[in-house]
Amino acid sequence: MKPFLLVATRPEDAAADSEYEAFLRYGGLTEDQLVRIRLESTPLPPLDLDDWSGIMLGGSPFTSSIPEEHKSDTQLRVEHELGRLLEVLIPADYPFLGACYGVGTLARHLGATLDGTYSEPISAATIEVTAEGAADPLLEGFPDSFQAFVGHKEAASHLPDGAVLLARGEACPVQMFRVRTNLYGTQFHPELDVHGILERIRIYRDAGYFDPAEQAQVEASVRDVEITVPQRILANFVNRYARD
């Protein structure tokens, strides 16, 4: 099987390694089947798309909607390189799955506005599958609604032109969409389970997602929630696009 590529942008080693392990576990992949590039520390190398089965983009502490002058040189480089990558992937209708920061990157590239209108606190949100979502291979066999972990300062304020809405939420209307046939984005985290969200809370306690004084309450709100459905998106993506 040709490997998948995970493009990561988390500068914190613990968060980056935990994210990679989650994509491995829930994608049913081994380390030689999922190659990781940590884009926050190294430029994106030239890619021959024929070498890969598909590309995944994980989450990030970067906030895309802040003014350009407030972005670090690293963030500006990452955004530029991801934009150039999407310029290739979208016309090719190449298998792509972006989670959280990934969905925002895809939506922004397609002209959607990212802002704080539909931000969500760290929580287990109820995600509703649309009729189009129920017919999509990545959501095959999913219930009409399920819970998934969220936590984001920005979101697409509207569905990008040409995108198909696959899942929505009460607080955030654009939770998952598809572009063309093979490019996907999820606002929720398909890779996160309870252990993963608790680790993120500890790592990003001072990153502005919640008041650090309320960390114990935030942890308590997610500790006993059983999240088992959204991870199937990763397995479905791998099963659909793995190729020799």
Automatic annotation (TrEMBL):
Gene3D superfamilies attached to this UniProt entry: 3.40.50.880
Domain Glutamine amidotransferase: 86-192
One Gene Ontology term, aspect cellular component: cytosol
PANTHER family (alphabetical): GLUTAMINE AMIDOTRANSFERASE YLR126C-RELATED
Protein name, per record: GMP synthase (Glutamine-hydrolysing)
Organism: Georgenia soli
Lineage per the UniProt record: Bacteria, Bacillati, Actinomycetota, Actinomycetes, Micrococcales
